Here is the input.
Amino acid sequence: MANTIVLKRSFTAASQPAVNDLAQGEVAWNVADGMLYGRQTVGMNDYICEVGAKPTQTASTSASDHFLLFSDSSTTGAGYFYKAAGIKVQPSTNSLICTGNVTAYSDIRLKKDIRPISDPIKKVQQIRGCTFEWLHGAASAAGRSVGVIAQEVEAVLPEAVHTGDDGYKSLAYGNMIGLLIEAIKEQQTQIEALQEALGNA
Here is the structure.
């Protein structure tokens, strides 16, 4: 059965459709202030989105708590994705800022074929920790940066490296923790063996 989408409009800024102005599933667009409204099945009209220099509503009905906001205002920078006291994506500096924790699944119930990392110390020794400057256009961060080289990691731990469609390599830095843990454990075993040998000398 075919469905018809009904789009209504208003030319009066800040004008909101009354509940009875929209049937369930209908959409109203205010061309004066950029507000887009939709009718839910629960009998009320909700904001869908708003455009403008500094939107006050985006996928939210509370002016003080944005769920999702893309702003091009001078105070945030073009394409800024913002959640108050939450997450910020700022394209002007290629930055992702989180006030909370960034986590990933690690539950053993989601894994199979679990194997320990072999020769961890040898692998760590083949990776340089270094400081560097990004080439122009590669990143917006000013000054020197610190990290490792993806190609060197790929040679010993390819699971942590991704090659994009453009051929450039990226690195899941968090995935290197397993290698470092195993390297420390192996080194500790060597230290304890040396201590025992010295004690028996």
Remarks:
- Confidence is low (pLDDT under 50) at residues 53-68, 72-78.
- The chain is about 20% helix and 20% strand.
- Residues 116-200 form one domain.
